Structures are given as C-alpha cells and as structure tokens.
Amino acid sequence: MKAFTITFPDNTTHTFTNPVAGTDLIKHFNTEGRPVYAVLVNNELYSLTREINMTAEVFPLTNATTEGSNVYRRTLCFILAAAAAELFPHLKLQVGHSLGYSYYYTFENEENNSTEKIDFKLLEEKMKEIIAADMPIRNGSVAYKEALEIFKNSGQTGTYKLLMQLGKPRFLINSIENFTDLYFLPLLPSTGFIDVFQIMPYEEGFLLRFPSTAKPETLDEFHDIPHLSAVYKNYKKWGKLIGVSSVGQLNEIIIDGKIKEFIEINETLQNKRFGEIADKIHERDTVKAVLLAGPSSSGKTTSAKKLSLQLRVLGYEPKVISLDNYYRGRNSAPIGEDGKPDYECLEALDVPLFNKNLVDLFNGKEVEIPIYDFKTGSRKPEGTFFKMNERTILIVEGIHGLNDNLTPDVPPELKFKVYLSALTQLNLDDHNRIPTSDNRLIRRIVRDAQFRNKGAAGTIAMWAGVRKGEQTHIFPFQNKADIMLNTALDYELPVLKVYAEPLLRAVKPIEKEYAKASELLTFLNNFMPVSSTCVPGQSILREFIGDSDFKY
Questions:
Q1: Most buried residue among 221, 230, 453, 550 by CB atoms closer than 10 A?
Q2: For residue 111, what pLDDT is reported?
Q3: Which residues pair with 36 in a beta bridge?
C-alpha cells in the first residue's frame, strides 16, 4: 500500500507502509506515565485497536482527559452488563441517572419490579474476575437479521426495539465470550485496563462508582443527593406508566403517528410540576423571593416565566429578576486560575447591591434594578424602577441562586430555592444511558445558533469551561434546594435533532471539536425526527428552538 505519515503531538513524524493501530503508537507518546485509553486521529475518536492507514495527526487520550475517562466508564459499564448477564440471566439490568461520579442501576424481573434481593458483592466479584482475565473486547459488524436475533435471544428488549426502529443493514457490536452489546462509541481493547471501581448498594438498586477525571487513580468520597434521586425515581416511574422509557419505544410512538399526543402529555406533566411548586410556595406563606438556579441550558429563563403564570393563578404578582443584571462588568470581573476573567464565580456579581435592593424592596421602598448590557460589558446608565406590594413575589433567576452567600442579608423564611435539572429518564437501551450533559449541550448548540449566531464548534469549544464552572458554582449547592424540578422533555431530542444535525455536520475534521460533534451525531442517529410544529408556544423547548410565546 501507499506510505503514509503520522504526526505526533510534539510535531515529530513517522512514515508507515502498513496499517497501524493506537496500541502500536503508544511508545511514540509522551504521556508522563499515564495510560492511553484511545486516540484522536485527525480529531476523530479511534479505539486503540482500530486501524490507521492514512496520513494523520494523532493525539493520545489518557485517563486524565474527559474523552479518555468516558472510554473508561463505557468499558466499565460494558463489563458490568456482562457480569450481570452471566449471574442473573432471568433479570434485566436497567441503567438510570448519574449521581456524582457514579451511575445508578436496578435489576428488574419480568413484571418490571425491582424488588428481588441481589447479592451485589457477588456482582462486584464477578466483574473483578472478568477484569483479571483481561478478556479482549471484540468489535465487529453483524447483519440486521443476525443483530435482531442476538438481542432478542439475550433478553435485551430495549436494544431489540431500538434496532427494529432504526432498520440499518448492519450494526456494530462489542462482545466478550458469550456476552454481546450494541456498539455506540469506542471501548478499551480489553477488560484488564479497568482497575478502579466499586459496586455500592443504593436505594432499590446500586451505584456503579468510578474515578473522576481529576483523580483517575482513586474513588472520591460519596456524597448523596437525595432530592435528585427522588426526582429521578418519580420521573422514571412515570415513564414506565406511559410505556416510554427507551429510545426504541419513543421511536415507535413517532412512527405510529402518536407523537402529538405524547408531546401534550409531557407538557401537561411539566406544567403540573410548576403548579405543585407554586402551591408549596403559597403554603410557606412567608416567601418573598423564589431563587431559581440550575446548570447551563436547564431552561431557567422559561421556567421563571412558567412559574410566574402558576403564581398568578394563586393571586400573586410575580416579578422576574435576572442575576445577569448584577454583573460588575468586564473591567471588574475577577481573574480565574487560567489568567482570564471569570464571569461564572459569585464574585463576578455585585452581591452587596443585590442584597441592598432586596432588603429595600422587602421594606416597601422603590428600587432601581440595574440593566446589564452584554454588548458593552457594563451596566446601562439607567435601570428599571420597581416597588413591591403585599402580593408581589420576586423570582430571581441565575446560576448562584442556591448559594447562601448570594443572599446573606435575607432571612431564610423569606426565601424559597428551586433547583432545575434536565434529567432525562430515557435510555438508549436497557443499559446504555443518555448523558444529561449531552442533552443540555445539544440544547445549547441549537440556541446559540438560533439567537447568538454561533456555530456548533464554538459552543462545543466553550462547553468544558461551562461544565467546570457548574462543578464549582452550581452542583455543590444542589442539596440546598427546597425542591428540584426536572425540565427535560422526553420528546425533545427528536425535535432538537432536526436543528442540531446540520450544525454538527458543519464542524470540520480540522477542528478540535470534530470528535464531540461526531459523537453527538452518532447519538442523534438513534432518534426519529419530529417537526417543531407540534411544540407548544410556552414550552421550555421554545427557549432553544425559537418562536416562544414568551418574550426574553
């Protein structure tokens, strides 16, 4: 074959005349002793065993990179599924939500009950046995009919239904010994790469714990988030009741022409949740300010407006205040560890002014609320004047709402804290989950393109920084919330797919963001598309796709 050249991160090059794999190139990387889990080839994610036979720039993904950590976690989940299939063939392993650095799983029997007693220690020992054997993880392609037979006979009903809806001529699979799983993204070459994990009993199931990217050699101390688990549990129960808990089931509804009714059910449920929050605020009686917080693209702005409507039903006169208006300005922003202005930290806000405004409002004074101009990076010369009456209730929207350091001068009885999370209960199949962060990233990509003239590559490029800010300024305060609200809509990804796919395809292989764009495209390929014409004007989804009945 024709010779090809590979360029390494240190700009050294080597010429090859035969195909090579990532495992052959590890010796050329300087990773300071860190294990390599995968490689980027011209910004495309390759497993360590996939052949490279073209001129390329190659970059190693170690256990200290987000992409490398994800390969590790996917492989760990694959080993868990294999161990569960061998030990408990009569039960179905169901993946749930993430909880810190862990995934929540349950076992279900034929009646969809997760009440059977499981020896989780036995499960962990079986996983260790598979890991110690260092079994090669084989990757291959099977024809459509064969794939259906494999997953039907193994009892993986979610995967079987998904394949029935996709109808591709062939599918990629991963396998070790007698266990086969559908291929979504690259795994490690063998089970022996896994060295840090734990099975921990939790509620009705267990947690599969794994290391963080920052400390890949150890497990962090576990911190429970009971509010989050309760929200997910109720949402998952609802998904079972209506018979839609996997992408295959959702696709079936789309194909059968029943998606409009399903959208109406989703929206009705979410509006009911907003009504329940309004009722709890009303029951508290002393509340003067509702503090609404959540990570990027959780739908904070629309949630504030929808909650306002529910409070109006109860006779209140809500006033929405955005914390963005209290930014100190570009010239006054604190400097982060990277030497750049940090607009995510609490100190970027004029906290003293915010507290003074709140206290004055609660005391019946008229207050000038500032207006921040993002184009100039400073406040406008004049704000808006406002005065509360006895029926006024403030809804404060912003990422720091749950942090008590935001409102030190406001008595606790005057505050009601709401945490928003886009926590989808849908799975790709029985044991392959939909990452909440990917759901939010797709929302953000669509919104940035619609309203900020930013391409998908630009949004992906800044996403790591956004996620880092969330880990520091939002997630640690989740347990401070009085109530949590799930803003995910089970029908939203088929709608977002129509907008996101052309944006993601526009990302070029010469851009670093190509790997993530390709991953999201692969993910969205599992969904049937749905037109946005069925989406109600007051839906949270309209905040991202446009044409909302609300003014922003």
A1: 550
A2: 60
A3: 62
